[in-house]
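Objective 1.3, modelling of assemblies. Example input:
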Amino acid sequence: MNRFTNRTIIILASLVTSVALADYTPGVEAWNIESAPPQQTVVVRNATVWTAGEQGILEQADVLVRDGEIRAVGVELDAPGNALEIDGTGMHVTPGIIDAHSHAAIIGGVNEATDISTAQVRIEDVIDSESINIYRQLAGGVTAINLLHGSANAIGGQMAVIKMRWGASPDELIFEAAAPGIKFALGENPKQSNWSNDDPRYPQSRPGVAQIIDEKFQQAVDYRQELQQMPEGRRARNVVPPRPDLEMDAIVEILEGVRKIHSHAYRADEMVMLIDIAESFGVTIGTFQHVLEGYKLARRMAEHGAGGSGFIDWWNFKHEAHDAIPYNPALMAMGGVTVGLHSDNPELARRMNLEAAKAVRYGGVDAHDALIMITANPARQLGVGNRTGRLEAGLDADFVIWNGHPLSVYSRVEQTWVDGRRYFDREADRAHRDAVEAERRELMAMVLEEGESGGEADESAAEEQTPGWLIGYRASELAHDEFCHAQDFGHVHAIDFRSGE
Amino acid sequence: MNIMTRIANTLAMAAVAYALVASPAVAQQVTALTGATVHPVEGDPIANGVVLIQGRDIAAVGVGIEIPDDATVIDLEGSHIYPGFVHPLSALGLTEISSVAGTVDNTEMGAINAALRVEVAFNHDSALLPVNVAGGILTTHTVPSGGLIRGTSAVMNMEGWSWEDMTIKAPAGMHINFPAGAASDSDNDDLKKIESVLDAARDWHKAMDAFEAGNAPRPARNAQLEALVPLLQGEMPLFLYAGQEKEINAALDWSERQEFQRVILVGGPDLQYVAERLATDGIPVILNGVYAMPTRRWEAYDMAYQAAGKLFEAGVKFAIGDGGGGFGATNARNLPFHAGSSAAFGLPKSAALKSVTLWPAEILGIEDQLGSLAAGKRASLLVTSGDPLEPMTQIRRVWIDGEEYDLGRSKHRQLFERYKGRIQTEAE
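Predicted structure (tokens):
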């Protein structure tokens, strides 16, 4: 814990109130907002519109938004008189970016790293709605993310898809239309390869991982049968029902096709293994996550119906990553797989457009198809393809305005809209900077004063909250899947400028 | 000796003989790259320019250059030619799979390792090298990491048959990590340890001088102290690492007190807050990574993206790095994108290109050989489909030291070709 005293916190709170009365309203914390931006009727005019849908790229086109929905995409659209007109000349408009693999807004507990199966635990119970990552990723054009457990166990826990409604409560962030899902993990992490282990847990090998998943599915089949065999009405009084089992409930949902598997996987063999087991239970896998060797079984994945959600170019950081290649998305797409690109990293998530750009570099994916890998395809993988990920009439108004080609390294996000609300505006952000800095100085001065008058706070108090090179962050904002990489370079997620590893 | 061994030996001898015959011919071979837009980095782009290569080096760059009759002419119309990227700070050659200890040689145990030389462990056949050459990294400044006094680094060619061939400059500098705690604690134990070793090295050097002048017996050999003498004599620059603003300032104060003659500061985006001082003092820096979280939670989202632009505005000489380390080494090929993103947030595009070519070459003291396309420099260059700071751009061909590099050596390209064939076959 930090060393702010209660009195300091009261002072901070009262100061925030006084600042809030000024012309700038920063809300409870720097960059946060007190209430959602209004839902606006808006028309973006004369822009290059990347629909990520059948219309492809439209030049000098308009996008009309009303009541949180896209109403029309086309040329010279009629707009209501009260519509906010945005001149999109020279600008590009794309759907909001969807990141199908994130740990960026989870209050601790990314890994429930105990049992080999923890299907009963739920990310929706630990969403950090105040994570600064939400705002920072909006500034990179991200409008929805899939919060997943880590990869410590073969069957991880239940995921939560959220929309980046900055300032909203955890409940309000939930993207209610998303298909229920669950994290699985294969390979080095569930078999505990990369850290010292005084008390090893079964399994310690890939066959063991396969065996335990198969066994859990068998148990769920039996559990479901017991439930189904429960008599109804009066006859039920004479039968002892099966003991409620939250873990089995979740796995039964998998068997029923209600809950989709999103499985961390690197090597081809382990992906074929999971497909094999899934098919033996009549289950279709949602996606393979990371999917490094997906290109080796592209046709098999497509035939089964599993999507691929991967890094574009991470490789060789673990032994099981030695055959990862950046041509993977291009090859999987060639094989008929629905391909998405994800971040798995709160910093990388801020520039997913450049990850998509690399799919153009490696394997010559068409730029519009590359954009689809960070918009329409991840939306489909999360079961929200009919709600977001494309610019099309009837879909949610989740979109981004760029000052240039959306895959260019020289372009910036100018505005990001979610549900027809402008959550990020670079111009407003720049205007807020001075106010944020002034507020910080004022708060620090008060904290220092408090320290001198007997309190314990000093300027380093805030700095002590975050280890490493970063200052003032909450641990949840730097949270990542600590098992996703070997422990000796866990700090990769926050670049160690000293290369000190 | 069995028959197979004899055949192998005969072949090996034949190969040696061929190399002896072939190498003078290679040295004189002239190649003219024509038709492309040439981006020399120093000076404006040249449409339909010529790069004339003779042996290892560039003989001429420009238009209207006379092409000798015996030159091999390669038409590159529709492409662009740029110098290769110079990575200012990486673990390339020293690391393979960072989670597999047996493949990791960029860190050593202990705090004081002044006598380490990294070039001796540079694995010329590391799978990371061709992959990153295919991404345009043709030169690496490979550095030791971990500990306080870390040892000496080396500027290495990305292609060659052994580390001896590939060494462009070694030692390139001594590496010292300014202890984070020393910024707010003048009694910091780690800093005191560094200072005591430096003082001992000064004493040792004095004793050695006295011995050489015939005034004293020879001091006992001490590899660590001896290795520090070139630094203390100003014959070798110091790469001094510091993270946050207050540490950077403290590190600069300390290096002034130590009277180091040539200091290159290595730090993160906080360098922008010290830009005026760095410019005034003429301290070059390596901005070690642009793709980073803002140092402080309350800072603007683009704080790290705009760091290079702020350094440029203030007139600081800088190179852009990528954070280095074992994980970074696998994707050193992403270095140019750090520069490109800086250009989206305030750095002029021409400066962005220099920050990963000419300026690292200057900071490393190899600008007479690399960093731009100019007569007399090594012919190490990229043929691209467009701007090489753009992730969408494809690198089509590469020359290193006057010879075309086979990009098919990249494991990634090999697996791509192999499985592309399989996927296509399955489709039929």
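Chain A touches chain B through 75 residues (CB under 8 Å).
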